[in-house]
Write a structure and sequence with these properties.
The complex is a heterodimer of chains A (434) and B (179).
Chain A lengths: L5 E5 L11 H13 L3 E7 L1 H8 L4 H4 L6 E6 L15 H5 L1 H14 L9 H14 L4 E5 L4 H13 L3 E4 L6 E2 L4 E2 L6 H12 L2 E4 L2 H10 L7 E3 L23 E5 L8 H11 L9 E5 L9 H8 L7 E3 L8 H6 L3 E5 L10 H7 L4 E4 L6 H4 L6 E3 L5 H17 L2 H12 L3 H15 L2
Parallel strand pairs in A: 1-2, 1-4, 2-3, 4-5, 5-8, 8-9, 10-11, 10-13, 11-12, 13-14, 14-15
Antiparallel strand pairs in A: 6-7
Chain B lengths: L8 H4 L10 E6 L5 H13 L3 E6 L12 E4 L1 H5 L4 H5 L2 H8 L9 H8 L1 H15 L3 H4 L6 E3 L6 H10 L4 E3 L4 H4 L3
Parallel strand pairs in B: 1-2, 1-4, 2-3, 4-5
Helix pairs in contact in B: 7-9
Classes of the chains: A alpha/beta (434), B alpha/beta (179).
């Protein structure tokens, strides 16, 4: 244990926000606090998340380390308001001028729709520093304006700053090519941010390689911190052999529009012809997209046919994940397909100790994550036939799974905790704060 | 400018229908969006509701029977400094010698099409509408049908009077096809 320091964490999506980015921010805060440091998180207010997604995960927020203090900021969100009745006077009455001004801000100042938030982060960071001097600034997760704010704050208060990219900014993950044309302002901002950062952190080896190749002068400062399992919230689920009863197959996570839902449901229909899946049900747990306006469309895609025994059970607090995992026999892990993506939910799926069926392109980096998991059945490709085949294999394994296999799966999951992933880089933070 | 009177609902449409009690206001202040909104309002009236079409193109009454109509163009031309632009010297001189000049002045047409005016025009229309609350009856509006950003200022101002008014893009799906 080292001397107690004060770390300013720029993490807009801190709980009770919900969404896939929340867990990594929470893990950083809790880990650094558990090391004995004081952590102040700059996060968006509850009202912000309530307006945006309509849901909060208060149970997860209640499990924040006591040495973590959260500053809820009233972040500018006018650009996200789509309901005319709730718009500001200027936005509703001069929509063209408002839009032009917002576009000019992105074109000339900071190239992101969240650019108006940057000054709020900087001002609030300065306020926190004035009350209690900050030793290190850590900016984790989107929006990218947070990284800009970290750089500016670092310069103003002359403290090191670290940027933790959940998703890269200038790389299009899905197309696997530059997200912006050469010379775009985003490239200039990113270079400035990375040039000045004490450490640049990202989530998987393909992205580490990409950052090192793109910014060779910063290559020695790029670090890997994989996503992980939070054993304090995702505890060991109960296990009992399946026997002859119909299987319960499950998906857990945000049900986004870009998941291969159609291919999966086609595969599910095919797989039900197999005796292993006779009478089986497919159970989706999670939010329907990230924005409330997408929910109905996703639900329609999900429950397209009543006789397929496909059910949506609604969202699940991270604190209730074990309960859900314990009620499922096979996990169906639907992911988007990109070699730069490692799904955070993969760790929760591992924690189930049950067979996991990978419904994604094998190039997705999550495949690497599961290479030592004893009961992983990845579809060879994202087609109905290949998915059906993987589902049948998973179902067969579920029916035969023993307690010893369950233990082996759990042991593999416990190798991937957040603390294990963060600790080596957090050790380096101690050096930076000396 | 006054609203054209509503056709008697009893004469053509049902006395009571799924839209009975609903009061829809359609904001079609650019001609491009007008027909879609007008059709939606026509359905409201057919189904027993009340509907008002707001335009700003100098047109006459609404094409769909029973839909009341408010056109704001003349008031807009007389609003503040617009009066100077709309009343060109050529037109004034023609009037003095007893000639009738049709259409709107070149200066006005250029001004309305200019970028600076486009930025403020739809807000001005909402200001022009403000004294017409007696005809609009904003507190009774149940739905505001909008088409694009040009509808936002008027819709926003109606919701200031009546926060319960819902902003919609069309009538409900089940109303669209005649039963």
């Amino acid at each position: 244990m080292t001397s107690r320091r004060h770390i300013l964490l720029l993490g807009m999506q801190f709980p009770p926000a919900r969404g896939s980015g929340v867990y990594r921010i929470r893990a950083w805060a809790n880990h650094l606090a558990a090391r004995g440091h004081d952590v102040t998180v700059l996060a968006a207010s509850r009202q912000y998340w309530h307006d945006l997604s309509g849901d909060l995960d208060e149970e997860l927020a209640a499990r924040t380390h006591p040495r973590v203090s959260v500053v809820e900021m009233d972040l500018p969100r006018e650009h996200l308001v789509q309901d005319v009745a709730r718009m500001s006077f200027v936005h509703a009455n001069f929509p063209r001028a408002y839009l032009l001004a917002h576009q000019a801000l992105q074109r000339k100042v900071f190239p992101e729709p969240y650019a108006p938030m940057l000054p709020t982060f900087v001002l609030q960071g300065l306020k926190v520093h004035r009350l209690k001097p900050v030793d290190l600034i850590l900016s984790t997760g989107n929006p990218y304006a947070q990284y800009g704010a970290a750089m500016i704050l670092g310069r103003l208060i002359r403290r090191p700053y670290v940027v933790d990219y959940h998703d890269p900014w200038t790389l299009d993950l899905w197309q696997e090519e530059d997200a912006f044309p050469p010379g775009h302002l985003a490239h200039r901002w990113e270079r400035r941010i990375i040039d000045g950062a004490a450490r640049i952190i990202t989530v998987n080896q393909p992205l580490v390689d990409w950052y090192q190749a793109r910014y060779p002068e910063a290559a020695g400062r790029v670090r890997l911190v994989e996503n992980g399992l939070a054993p304090d919230t995702v505890t060991e689920p109960p296990f009992s052999p399946v026997g002859d009863r119909p299987l319960r197959v499950g998906f857990l996570g945000t049900i986004r529009n870009d998941l291969p839902l159609a291919e999966f449901l086609d595969g599910w229909e095919l797989a039900q012809q197999s005796p292993e899946l006779a009478g089986a049900s497919m159970n989706f747990y999670g939010y329907l997209g990230f924005f409330r306006q997408h929910a109905n469309g996703i639900l329609q895609r999900l429950t397209r046919s009543e006789d397929q025994r496909v059910k949506w059970h609604g969202p699940v607090s991270q604190t209730k994940v074990s309960e859900v995992l314990g009620s499922l026999d096979v996990m169906a892990m639907l992911l988007t397909s990109s070699r730069y993506v490692t799904a955070g939910k993969g760790f929760d799926y591992m924690a189930s100790g049950r067979p996991v069926v990978g419904v994604h392109d094998p190039r997705n980096d999550t495949t690497t994550l599961f290479k030592n998991y004893p009961l992983f059945f990845g579809a060879r490709e994202v087609t109905a036939e290949a998915i059906a085949s993987a589902l049948v294999e998973g179902a067969r394994a579920a029916r035969a799974e023993t307690v010893a296999e369950f233990r082996a799966c759990r042991a593999e999951a416990l190798k991937h905790t957040w603390d294990a992933a963060i600790a080596p880089v957090a050790d380096e933070f101690e050096e930076l704060m000396r | 400018m006054t609203a054209t009177p509503a056709a008697s609902v009893g004469s053509g449409g049902p006395l009571e229908g799924p839209a009975f009690g609903a009061y829809y206001v359609g904001v079609a202040v650019i001609p491009k969006r007008r027909s879609t909104i007008e059709n939606a309002l026509g359905r409201v009236v057919e189904l027993g509701g009340e509907a008002l079409l707001i335009t700003a193109d100098g047109s006459g009454r609404a094409a769909r029977p029973g839909v009341r109509h408010l056109d704001l163009l003349r008031r807009e031309m007389h609003w503040g400094p617009n009066r100077l632009i709309a009343a060109s010297p050529k037109r004034l001189a023609a009037r003095l010698v007893g000639k009738k000049v049709g259409g709107r002045s070149l200066a006005w047409r250029r001004w309305v099409a200019s970028k600076p005016y486009k930025v403020v025009r739809f807000h001005i229309l909402s200001r022009v509408l403000a004294p017409l609350n007696g005809e609009l009856r904003p507190s009774e509006v149940t739905h505001i049908v909008i088409a694009g950003v040009e509808s936002w200022p008027i819709a926003w101002h109606i919701t200031r009077f009546n926060p319960e008014a819902q902003i919609v893009w069309d009538v409900p799906g089940e109303w669209r096809t005649p039963q």
